Amino acid sequence: MEQRAVTGSGEDPRVSQLRAAVSRLRRELAGHPAEFPDRAVAEDELAALEAMAMSGVPEVPRLRRSLLLIAGSIGSVSALGGAVAGVRRAVELFGGPPPPTP
Known about the structure:
Layout: H1 13-31, H2 39-54, H3 60-74, H4 81-92
Helix pairs in contact: 1-2, 1-4, 2-3, 3-4
């Protein structure tokens, strides 16, 4: 089993980065004036990511699923692209993409 360093608070640094990235995207989404059809989907998945991060080390398949739903729901909103990329980088800290299926 792989061991990870923990922060001074005892929290896995990957979880800390995920929480920070999710928080940033939630703030930017809340401040974005335009409404779009799947905004609620993005907000729900961000809440799910935050809950997973609060509970400790999240399940990687669930992280990826949430990321996919977030990217699909707000991917066309270029003003949020940087924050979405931050969430993607944080999710990737838990393991790269799965290997291709033969």
